[in-house]
Write a structure and sequence with these properties.
- The complex is a heterodimer.
- Chain A is mostly helical.
- Chain A is 71% helix and 0% strand.
- Chain A is elongated and about 65 Å long.
- The two termini of chain A are 15 Å apart.
- Chain B contains 19 helices and 2 strands.
- In chain B, strands 1-2 form a two-stranded antiparallel ribbon.
- Chain B is elongated, with a radius of gyration of 23 Å.
- Classes of the chains: A mainly alpha, B mainly alpha.
- Chains A and B meet through helix 8, helix 9, helix 10 and helix 12 of A and helix 7, helix 8, helix 9 and helix 11 of B.
- Chain B: It holds the Pfam family Annexin.
- Chain B: It comes from Ensete ventricosum (Abyssinian banana).
- Chain B: This is Annexin.
- Chain B: GO terms for molecular function: calcium ion binding; calcium-dependent phospholipid binding; phosphatidylserine binding.
C-alpha cells in the first residue's frame, strides 16, 4: 500500500505549477516548497502538473528541476516526477550499458512488476531510446548472465493461480539434480525460472523444501563467490516475496558504509505508491527500528526530507 | 449423363467442394436412382464390393476435409486475430503440426499483435507461449523459438549502421562454422534474430548480401527453422507467396493445403496486396487465377473475396 500523505482536497495542477514556479524564482531554490507539493501528490496528479507546467511555462518540469536542484535530492525528485513506466525505462537504461552481476535493477523491473507494468516500461524504453530493452540487455551481457537475463526481461508469465502439482514435484526434482551437479546455468534451470508462472514456481519451491529438506536458496549458497548463484538467489527471493526482497535491498543500502543512495532512492521512489507500507512493516520486524528513523539517521538535508515525506511517519 | 459425371468428379477435385454443381446434379437426377448407380459404377470414388459399389474410405476422408474448408475459413475469419494465432501455436505444440507455423506467427506479426497472441494464449490455455514452447520443443532450435515468441521488438526506423554491419559479419561467421556448431544453436545468431528490430535486420541482411555476395535467405535456406526465420523477417511477402504456392502443387500434403487458408485469412487485412504482387512476380501467374483453377465452391469464393479481386 501507498505511504503517501495527500491533502484532503488537492489544489489544481495549475495552482501547484504556480507554487513550483515560485519555488524556482530568484536566487536559490525553495526546496521545502517543492517537497511540500510534489511529495504529496499521487501519480496521476503529478502527470497533470507536468503537463500544465509545460503549457504554462513552456518548459518540461523535469528540465526546470534539473536546473534548480542538485545531487541526491535532484535525482530522487526527477525519478519521482516521472511516470512509473518512464522511471523504470530510465533506471534500466542506466545500468544496461555497464551491467555487472551485482546490479539488481533489471531483476527488480523484470520480477517485481506486473506484466502490464513491465510492458509499459518496455514501451517507454523504446520510445525514449529507439531500441528495445531486450536488444540492449542481450548486446551488453554475455555468457550465462545473458542466457538468464534476456528471457527474464522478455517473459510474459501466465498470471493465474492454477498449479500443476505433479509438474511442481518433477521440476523441483530437476532443479535439485542440477544444483547438486553444479549445473547452475543449465537450460532447464533457466527455463523453469524464467517461464513458469509465479504460482507454479511458489509451489515448486515449496515442494523443493518438502522433498529435499532445505529451501532452494540455502542449497544455492554453496559457493559464496559465485556471482551467477547470487543472481539466481535474488531472482528466487524476488519471485517468492517482492516486499521482503525490497526490504533487504533497503536494509543493505542503509547499512552499507556511507549508504547506497542509488538503491535507497530507487526503492523508495518506485514503491512509495505500491507496497511501501508492507516494506516498512517488514523492516520494523527485521530491524526493531522504523524505516523512518533509519532513513532520518542515515541521510541529510533536502534529500532526507524528501524521502521521509514519501515513506511517511509512523503511528 | 457424361456431363453430370464430369461435374460431380470436378466438384470434388481440388481444395474445397463445388457445392452449386453438386446441387444442380442432385436436382437433375431427382427420382432417378439409376443415374446415381451409373455414377457409382464408373467413378473411382466407389469400388465394387460383391453386390454393390462401396464408397472408398479415402474418398470419405477427403470429403470430410474438403467440405470443412469453407467452415474452417469462416470460423477463422470471424475469430479475433489474437485467438487465431494463439490456437495455431497451441496446435503446433500439442498436435505436432509443423513448427514453421510458430516461426511464421512470431516473425510476421507486429510487436503488439504478438503480445496480443500471448495474452490470448494465457486466457485460453492457462500457460504462457514461451513456457509451453520451452517445455515441449526438444529439438535444437528450441532456444531460437523461445526467443522468437518472446520478442517485443522496437518498431521504429532508427538503425545503427555500424552495428548492422558487424552483426552481418557475425551471421556470416556462424554459417561458415556450420561444421563445428549448428548455426541454430549459436547464441549470437539467436541474439541478433530474436531481439533486433525488423528495420535493423533488413539493414543487416542488406550488409550480408554486400559482404558475401549471396542473400542470407540463400545461405540459411538449408538450416531448419533458421531458413524460415530469415525469410519471414527479411521479406514476409515473399515467404507467404511461397507458402501459398506450395498448397497448389500436386504433392501438397494436408499441412501445405491448410496453409492456404491460414495465410489468406491472416494476411487479408494486412499485406495481401503486396503478397499478390510478389506472387505474380515469382510464379508468373496471378494469384486469383491460381485460386480459381485449384479451389472449388464457397471455399473458392471466400478466398477470392479475402484476396480481393
Amino acid at each position: 500500500m501507498s505511504t503517501l500523505t495527500i491533502p484532503g482536497s488537492l489544489p489544481s495542477p495549475a495552482d501547484d505549477c504556480e507554487q513550483l514556479h515560485k519555488a524556482f524564482q530568484g536566487w536559490g531554490t525553495n526546496e521545502g516548497l517543492i517537497i511540500s507539493v510534489l511529495a504529496h501528490r499521487p501519480a496521476a496528479h503529478r502527470r497533470e502538473i507536468r503537463r500544465a507546467y509545460a503549457e504554462i511555462y513552456g518548459e518540461d518540469l523535469l528540465k526546470s528541476l534539473d536546473k534548480e536542484l542538485t545531487r541526491d535530492f535532484e535525482r530522487a525528485v526527477l525519478l519521482w516526477v516521472m511516470d512509473a513506466a518512464e522511471r523504470d525505462a530510465v533506471l534500466a537504461n542506466e545500468v544496461v550499458r555497464k551491467w555487472s552481476p551485482g546490479n539488481r535493477v533489471l531483476i527488480e523491473i523484470a520480477v517485481a512488476r506486473t506484466a502490464d507494468q513491465l510492458f509499459a516500461a518496455k514501451r517507454a524504453y523504446q520510445a525514449r531510446f529507439k531500441r528495445s530493452l531486450e536488444e540492449d540487455v542481450a548486446a551488453h551481457t554475455n555468457g550465462d548472465f545473458r542466457k538468464l537475463l534476456v528471457p527474464l526481461v522478455s517473459s510474459y508469465r501466465y498470471e493465474g493461480s492454477e498449479v500443476n502439482t505433479s509438474l511442481a514435484k518433477s521440476e523441483a526434482k530437476m532443479l535439485h539434480e542440477k544444483i547438486k551437479g553444479k549445473d547452475y546455468s543449465d537450460e532447464e534451470v533457466i527455463r523453469i525460472l524464467t517461464t513458469r508462472s509465479k504460482a507454479q514456481l511458489l509451489a515448486t519451491f515449496n515442494d523443493y523444501k518438502n522433498q529435499f529438506g532445505n529451501p532452494i536458496n540455502k542449497d544455492l549458497k554453496s559457493d559464496p563467490k559465485n556471482e551467477f548463484l547470487s543472481v539466481l538467489r535474488a531472482i528466487i527471493r524476488c519471485i517468492t516475496c517482492p516486499e521482503r526482497y525490497l526490504e533487504k535491498v533497503i536494509r543493505l543500502a542503509i547499512n552499507k558504509m556511507g549508504t547506497d543512495e542509488g538503491a535507497l532512492t530507487r526503492v523508495i521512489t518506485t514503491r512509495a505508491e505500491v507496497d511501501m507500507k508492507q516494506i516498512k512493516e517488514l523492516y520494523y520486524k527485521r530491524n526493531n527500528v522504523t524505516l523512518y528513523r533509519s532513513v532520518k539517521k542515515d541521510t541529510t538535508g533536502d534529500y532526507e526530507d524528501f524521502l521521509l515525506a514519501l515513506i511517511g511517519h509512523d503511528d | 449423363m457424361a456431363e453430370e459425371h464430369e461435374a460431380l468428379t470436378g466438384a470434388f477435385s481440388g481444395l474445397g467442394v463445388d457445392e452449386s454443381s453438386l446441387l444442380s446434379v442432385i436436382t437433375q437426377w431427382r427420382k432417378q436412382p439409376e443415374k446415381r448407380q451409373g455414377f457409382r459404377s464408373s467413378s473411382p470414388f466407389f469400388k465394387p464390393h460383391g453386390s454393390f459399389e462401396r464408397c472408398e474410405d479415402d474418398f470419405v476422408r477427403s470429403l470430410k476435409v474438403e467440405f470443412a474448408r469453407f467452415k474452417n475459413i469462416t470460423v477463422l475469419w470471424a475469430m479475433h486475430p489474437w485467438e487465431r494465432d494463439a490456437r495455431w501455436i497451441h496446435h503446433v505444440l500439442h498436435k505436432a503440426h509443423p513448427f514453421n507455423i510458430v516461426v511464421e506467427i512470431a516473425c510476421t506479426r507486429s510487436s503488439d499483435e504478438l503480445l496480443g497472441a500471448r495474452k490470448a494464449y494465457h486466457a485460453l490455455f492457462h500457460h504462457s507461449i514461451e513456457e509451453d514452447v520451452a517445455y515441449r520443443v526438444k529439438e535444437n532450435y528450441c532456444n531460437l523459438l523461445v526467443g522468437l515468441v518472446s520478442a517485443y521488438r522496437y518498431e521504429g526506423s532508427r538503425v545503427d549502421d555500424d552495428v548492422a554491419k558487424s552483426e552481418a559479419k557475425a551471421l556470416g561467421h556462424a554459417i561458415k562454422s556450420a561444421g563445428t556448431e549448428d548455426p541454430v544453436e549459436n547464441y549470437e545468431v539467436i541474439r541478433i534474430l530474436t531481439t533486433r528490430s525488423k528495420a535493423h535486420l533488413k539493414e543487416t541482411f542488406r550488409h550480408y548480401n554486400g559482404l558475401y555476395g549471396k542473400s542470407i535467405e540463400q545461405d540459411f535456406a538449408g538450416e531448419s527453422c533458421l531458413g524460415e526465420t530469415v525469410q519471414c523477417l527479411g521479406s514476409s511477402a515473399s515467404y507467404f507467396s511461397k507458402v501459398i504456392d506450395k498448397a497448389f502443387r500436386e504433392e501438397a500434403d494436408k499441412n501445405a493445403k491448410d496453409a492456404l487458408t491460414r495465410v489468406v485469412v491472416s494476411r487479408s487485412d494486412v499485406d495481401i496486396e503486396e503478397i499478390k504482387a510478389v506472387y505474380e512476380q515469382q510464379h508468373k501467374a496471378k494469384l486469383e487465377d491460381k485460386i480459381v483453377k485449384n479451389t472449388r465452391g464457397n471455399y473458392r469464393d471466400a478466398l477470392l473475396s479475402l484476396v480481393g479481386v
